Amino acid sequence: MSRLVLTTSQARKIILHAAGLSKRAQFGKGREAVYKLIDHLGFVQVDTNYVVERAHHHAIASRVPDYKLEWLDELQADGRIFEFWTYAAGYIPMHDFRFSLPVKAGFLSRRKPLTQAEINLMDKVVDRIAREGPLMARDFENDRVEASSGWWDWRPSKMALERLHLDGRLMTMRRKDFQKLYDLPRNVIPADIDGTMPTDEEFARHVIRRSLGSLGIAYAKEMVWRARYVKDNLVKKELEKLVEEGEICQVAIEGLKTAPLYMLPGYKSKKIQLSDDAFILSPFDVLNVFRHRLRDFFDFDYQVECFVPQAKRKYGYFSLPVLVGDTFFARMDSKADRKKDELAIHNLHFEPVKLTRPVILKISDAIRAFAKFNQCETVTIKRSNDKAALKVLRDAL
């Protein structure tokens, strides 16, 4: 089978364009640009970490200038997006709703047998929401019997709500304080949305197309990962068929020995021009989720270290990749001190790549915009491994 051979530069352009990072406003500006972005990516991951603004808002703000947090809530209230799971929790275009059904079935099939008391509680929760409208976990009485043992030690009613959300009997919205509102699907899903269960083949092909649409160039394992909650999914099998049918092509990267790579044929002739804008990215950005991709395509070895014991951290608790053009120039460990209105950069570590004054100034512009996005008026850089670059940055900021 013939494969298209790409240079590293060509591969990076395709990957960045697919991720919505070829230029600062690839999808335009305003609320409609937010929808276009989500519709293009197919999924924007939600994360609760609040060291800086949460990952879903961060991913959107990186791509949509002057993004306002309420736009995401408005799109959900308008029935254009919904929150559920692919490989993680996130926002999905509403017209993809039917492809969430196999995931819900997957969660249900993996569920351990419930006691009659747990089943009765779930029924009572659904009945109450049907009568009263959308409710939060705190609207149910504190039914904990024993003291909490940690974050995931939920009380029975909270556990019931989450089970009902995962199996599809409830859907969720978000309040401004990030608390979940649980409601019946009929109150959330627009009447014209297709709610039929896709076949296994349809689901697998949807996952493949969505994965390649947002990743640009991908391994089979990344597409399979997106369907990881669906038992016995057919992603690998359907991928082979789509290649035979010509809907997907195999590619290889010059000088890089890898497992087979796949791409949508439209990129064969697409002219992509990168703007050389600077982007400060979330660890949970679609570009950064798979560490091996960053190593293979960008020669960037990255790990978010909030999951690493403090003694083993090299760069900081929540270091953010800093991309300029097609190169990762730095990683920035920062925290938004909302009481002081200060973005505190604990460590700005530059990579061993050629660093020029124009690049440093682009990074300073990105830091300034990032501080504004985090509602911070001042920026403090406490440490860097490049004193000359640090001086230029401090002067510019």
Give a description of the structure.
- By secondary structure, the chain is α+β, with helices and mostly antiparallel strands.
- Among the domains are: 112-188, Arc Repressor Mutant, subunit A (Orthogonal Bundle), CATH 1.10.10; 318-396, no CATH class.
- 38% of the residues lie in helices and 18% in strands.
- The chain is built from 14 helices and 14 strands.
- It has a five-stranded mixed β-sheet with strand order 10-11-12-13-14, covered by helices on one side. A four-stranded mixed β-sheet has the order 1-8-9-7.
- Strand 11 and strand 12 form a beta hairpin.
- Helix 6 crosses helix 7 (156-167) and helix 9 (200-215) packs across helix 11.
- The longest helix has 17 residues, at 116-132.
- The protein starts with a strand and ends with a helix.
- The relative contact order is 0.13.
Strand fraction band?
A: 15-25%
- The percentage helix is 25-40%
Strand order of the largest sheet: 10-11-12-13-14
Query: What's the gyration radius in Å?
Result: 22 Å
Number of strands: 14
Sheet of most strands = 5 strands, mixed
Q: How would you sum up the global shape? A: globular
Return the string of H and E elements.
Answer: EHHEHHEEHHHEEHHEHHEEEHEEEHEH
Q: Assembly state here?
A: single chain
Task: State the separation between the terminal residues, measured CA to CA.
Answer: 53 Å
Query: What is the number of helical segments per DSSP (H or I, 4+ residues)?
Result: 14
- Please identify the structural class as seen in this structure: alpha+beta
Instruction: State mean pLDDT (0 to 100 scale).
Output: 95
